[in-house]
Amino acid sequence: MKLELRGITKRFGTLLANDHIDVVVEPGQIHCLLGENGAGKSTLMNVLYGLYEPTEGEILVDDKPVSFRGPGDAMAAGIGMVHQHFMLVPVFTVAENVALGAEPTKAAGFLNLDQTRQRIKEISDQYGFDVDPDALVEDLPVGVQQRVEIIKALVRNAKVLILDEPTAVLTPQETDELLDIMRQLKSRGTSIVFISHKLREVKEVSDTITVIRRGKVVGTADPAASTTELASMMVGRAVSLNLEKAPAQPRETTFEVSDLTVVAPNGQHVVDHLSFHIKRGEILAIAGVQGNGQTELTEAILGLQERVTGSIVLDGKELVGRSVKEVLDAGVGFVPEDRTVDGLVGTFSVAENLILDLYDKPPFAKGISMSPAKIMENAKARIGEFDVRTPSAASAAGTLSGGNQQKLVMARELSRPLRLFIASQPTRGVDVGSIEFLHRRIVAERDQGTPVMIISTELDEVMELADRIAVLYKGKLVGTVPAGTGRDVLGLMMAGIPPEEHAPNGHAHAPQAGIPAATSNAEGADHA
Ligand SMILES: Nc1ncnc2c1ncn2[C@@H]1O[C@H](COP(=O)(O)OP(=O)(O)OP(=O)(O)O)[C@@H](O)[C@H]1O
C-alpha cells in the first residue's frame, strides 16, 4: 500500500505543530521520521491515525484521497498504530485483548475468541513472535506486550504500521528483537513509519529518513550518513555526541544505603540486602535490566515503599520511615521513570509544574498566598535554560511533546539546592541535542558537590555518565565497577554474573576481565 501525506498542517490555537508536511511512504518501506523534541512527529502520526483532524492537507492511500474521522477509519484503510503507552487490558489474556474492539474484517466478519486465538498463532508463527494467546497480558514482559499490540494491528489487516518511539521502553535485547520483527514485516510487504531518537537503530533499519524541524520537513537524510550528521541535520546545529567530562573529585560520603530490603506484597524480596554509598561529587549509575529492583529502590529512598528494613542515611539523617515531603525537604531531587504518572500534573501549567516541590517556600510563597510574578519569572528562566519548547509558561504541561515534558521535570529538579540527586531514565524520549545538554547539567550538579544516582537501562548513558557503576540483578548488587568498564563485562553482570567469575572470553573464573586495572574495585567494593 502506498501512503501519502500531502500538505498536512495542524494548528493548536496559535501554535503551528505541522506546517504543510509532505511525506510519501512506499509499499514495504521503513520510513523514519527524525526530528527534535516538539518538532511535530507525534502530531503528524495522530493526524494519520485519525486522532486529530488536520487543519489543512490530505491523506492519500494508493493515490486516492481518504478522510479519517477516528482511528476506526484509519484501521479500516489499513493503518495501524502502536502507542508508547500500550492500550492493553492487563487482566485479560492476549486473545481477549486482540479480540477486544476488533472491527469485523472483510474476510472473516467478526472473529470469535477461538478464531482470534488461531489468527494469533498463525501470525506468531509467521513472524516468529513467540506469543501465547492464552497468557495474561500482565504476566508478559514489556517487549512481548508490544508484540501483542503489533498482532492487534496485523489481525486488523494493517498494511502500514506506525511505531512511535517503540524502543524507548525496551531492553537492548528486546530492541534487537523488535528491529528483526520490523525487517520481517517489511519483507512481507508491510510499510512502517518509525519514530525514534536513537540514531543507531534509525540507521540500522530505515530505508528513508524524513527530517522534521519546527513543524516543517527540512529534507531527507541518507541512513548511511553518520550519527553525527543525522544529529546535526535534526537539530540544525553541530551536536557533540560524546560527553567531555573531567574525572570526578569525590569528597566525603554523605549518602549511604545499608542492608536495605524491600518486601513486595507477595512476600518477594524485590530489594535484597542492598548496601552502597555515594560520595559528594560523584555519579553512581545503577545499571540493570528493568524490573530488577530499581523502581523499588528509588521508591524506598523517596518514602514511597512501606515494607522497608535497613537504613538509608543522607547527611547523617535516617530517611527510612520519613514521608515523601520530609525526604524532598531533606534536599533530595528526584526524576521518576514515568514522568506522566509521577513527574508532572498534566492539567497544571508549565509554570506551576516547575514549582511543585517549592510552592510553599520563598520566594514563591508569601505568607499563605503565592507570588504569581515570581512563579512566572522562574518559569521563563527555566524554559530558556533547558530549552523547553512550549507555546508559553501558562500552557498545560500535558500538551507538551514527550521529550519536552521530560526536560520540564529535569529543569524543576535540577534548579533547587540539592543534597542528593536521583534520576531514573533521565533522558527517556529526549532528542540527541537535549541529551547533550542534560548530561552536562547532571555533571555540573556533581561538580557542585552533590552525590548523584542515575538509574538507567541504557548502557550508553550509564557508560557516559557514571564515575562508578553498580549493577542490580534480582534485587541484589552483582557488583560495583569503575567508569571505563567494558560493555561486555556490564552485560554479563546484568545477567547476574559477578565480575570475579568472568573469563576473558566466557563465563568461567578469571577475575576482573575487561575492568580497568588501575581502579578495579578500589572505589567500588560495595558487594552485597
Ligand atoms: N493536544 C495538544 N494541544 C496543544 N498543543 C499540542 C498538543 N499536542 C501537541 N502539541 C504541541 O505540538 C507541538 C508538537 O508536538 P509533538 O508531540 O508532535 O512533537 P514530537 O516531535 O512528537 O516531539 P517528541 O520527540 O518530544 O515526542 C509541540 O509544541 C506540542 O506542545
UniProtKB/TrEMBL annotation:
Keyword Nucleotide-binding: yes
Region feature (Disordered): 500-528
Regions annotated as coiled coil: none
PROSITE patterns given in the database record: ABC_TRANSPORTER_1, ABC_TRANSPORTER_2
The protein's name in its UniProt record: ABC transporter ATP-binding protein
CDD domains: ABC_Carb_Monos_I, ABC_Carb_Monos_II
Species whose genome carries this gene: Arthrobacter sedimenti
A GO term for molecular function: ATP binding
Keywords for the protein's UniProt record, in alphabetical order: ATP-binding, Nucleotide-binding
Domain ABC transporter, chain residue ranges per copy: 3-239, 255-499
